[in-house]
Amino acid sequence: MSSAGGWARKRRREAGLLFSDPRRDVAFPLAGGVVLFAAFVGSGLLYTAVVEGAAAEKLITAMFIDAVMVIGIQIYVGNTGVFSFGHVGFGAVAGYAFALFAIAPDDKLTRIPDAPWGLVDVHLSPAAATAVAVGVTLVVALVVGIGLGRSGARSGSVAATVITLALLFFTHEVATSWNDLTGGERAGLTFGIGDTLQTRTPIYIVLLASIIAALLFARSSVGRLSHAAREDNLAARAMGIDPVVQQTLALLLSVAVVSVAASLRVYEIGSLLPEFFFFNYTLLTLVMLIVGGRNGVTGALLGVAVITAVRESARRMGSDGYEVFGIGLDGNLDWVFREGLPTVLLGLAMVGFMIWRPNGVLGDWEIDAWLSRRLVRRRPPAPAAEAPVPEAVDLRAGGVSVEFGGFRALDDATVEVSNREIVGLIGPNGAGKTTLVNVMTGIVKPTAGEVSLGELPLTAAPSHEIARAGLVRTFQNLRLFTSLTVRENVEVAALVAAVYRNGGDRASIDAIVAGAGLWDQRDRRAGQLDYGNSRRLELARAAAAAPAFLLLDEPTSGMSDAESLAMVDSVRRMAAAVGAGVLVIDHDLNFITGICDRVYCLDQGRVIALGTPNEVQADAAVQAAYLGSAASNGAGTP
Amino acid sequence: MTDLVQNVIDGLGRGSIYALLALGVAVVFGVMHLLNFAHGELITVSGYAAYAAFSNGWSWYLVAPLIVVVSVVANVVIERIAFSRVRGSSEFTQLLTSFGIHFLVSAIFLMYIGARVQTFAEPSWIADTYSLGPLRVEVFDTVVIIVTIVTLALTAAVLQRTMFGLALRAAADDFDAARLMGVNSDRVIRGAFALSGALAGIAGIFWLMRAGHTSPSSGISPMLSGVLAALIGGLGSLRGAVIGGLALGMAEVMLRTWLPGTAAALTQGVVFTLIALLFIFRPGGIVNVAHAERV
Asked: How far is A301 from chain B (nearest CA, A)?
């Protein structure tokens, strides 16, 4: 009994980690998915009701299948920001796997009598063949996924694009050249008349399921962490996210959906040629994805509907002349309305959207997020209680040297901070302050010296592991997750703490947002914040990761005097709320004096002074360093 | 041994064309971090120009310079119309822009000229060979290799000796720093596109001579070769692009000779797999160009 209860609790905790807010992350995506499905299918059926005939029915069926395909691609591209040319290539793998298992042996004997592995005699039902297709394609996806992970795929990464492009061409090459398996470039594989998909029911089921799966994935912790990496890979790593895991999961889910779509497509068309899953289909699905907005499922579906409509009208105007809805357009427009117009429009749409609206019509708008913002009112939370004082631990960077080429940015610098104090790091420009923080957070590898947190050595560990160990930083040049909302920025950090550090709970997210003075801005995109609020959000986001140490790189840079005074209070409160020690770089001496227990002064990569703010300010070597006189060569250094 | 040398010569001939295409891709990548998937369309455009010229009775000696001119003009026009508007956007946006242009150009030819392959006469000497000891060398390969060497030497001279070359190398090294130092970014970028177009034009002459035809989709294969070779070499590195082109040409020739029967048909596929593997284990390409991010 008790063990069963424990098991149930563990499951609940894991589910809680996967979806931190059941209503927002599960209920609304389900509801939103049903609404989207109804609207999309409804508009398709409306079209077939108005425009009767087999051609219209066929068009709408193809649109539903394309929708599944595009949602599949969206799951990967939208959530990770990694651009893939290869998904249609995965589609080719699945399409051929489906065809080879679903086509009756008699038909295969005429087309591909020499097929390897005894495939000629295999005959599965369409559903079973789809399952096999998904399985086979997932294996390929896993291999590609490991490759992508190794290549350090990040958003916008060229390596990822090339690997996926290579997949597309490889599958096409195999499909055209391996005649025994695929029937080759011209003959292809055919089901034979009467054996094609006759009812839309499986398409509806698959479409609804993939819409909901995509929405749920985006709201899961996996989805949220990969959004952070999509927005800013470096900042995500500095917060403890190693996006490879999330990206691989996104790839697998996305490929599963794509495989089902490809099987349906082959089944519906009733035959398969290599060109069905090559450049033209890649163009079509990509344009569908970007026109509506690749970051959301709503955008993907909107794109599918709009592009289907545009293509169909262009095709009609191209082939039947340009009489639209009974209105004839007079004039010499023959040069526009001719065959081939749909493809030209697709190309134009792609270029045009990239130039004028790269994020599509809807941008980051998503139906479930909108519903939950409209329908759920959040009350401002009680202010965060101070965290119990944690066990004392020291952060130590000992004898650190860094050389960039011939330039010595740090020269045997030693800095120690306890998690009960706030320590300042000052020094003239180029003194090596940011470099020191970069070394501590694993962004720059030291030439000599070591970094440790208590007993734990951190020298040259990867950024995300350092962050998980408890060192979280902010950046001099802001690095927010710009297309996430303010609350989501903080939430991602809290999520990292919950997943990797067993700390931070949901209630505290609102408290931290409110504590940073950002409650009224919580649903705005971080990219729309003004400068001061952006700085405050960076601090709040770092604090939400519940670190043992906060490393702040110029938190008051660009702020007015009054604002930086308020920042003193903010930093104190945030640090106390999570029980973290603070190492802060700043140029504003009022701020430093107001907040720090101790101050280190760096000059030309060396620690030249250490003491209370007043002691350091009075130090002759420090004054010389700031005034830039020759005295820095000797006067004050011991 | 003789076979190997024979393969190397064949590979050099093929690889030289790739090297010119790749260098064009790398020059543009250097100045605006754009991986130009529209590069192959320059060959489609100049292919149709060549076809039109042949229909009017021009000879190859007149058509060859025409191809280069058309290619330069086309690349500069494409830059003005489209790429100048996405300058500084994310790599994602730039990449998709070039991908869109690739499709747009071929779709326009498809719409107005049709899918039919338009053929023209190859030069009479295209299949001629001469013996060099035990080797049989194509006149065509010899011409290609010599022209490539001259082109590369000229390009190197432009890059090393002229102000434009200096600005371009500086921009490729660190674009922001170069701009701060007073390099006119607009002029450098336009110049880079013109240079890239000229290189594509010279490659295009040989490509079209060998193919003897043009069609709306004839840009795909030179685009792939150019982009892949530039990537193999290490994007942004001009020397790497040339090495990458030669390596790709060699790899194709060697694999075609060495792969057993059925697999030989899959040469292209094997090359793609090798390239994917290269990227998995050495994402930066052969010549690694560090693009450190400032934090």
From this structure: 20
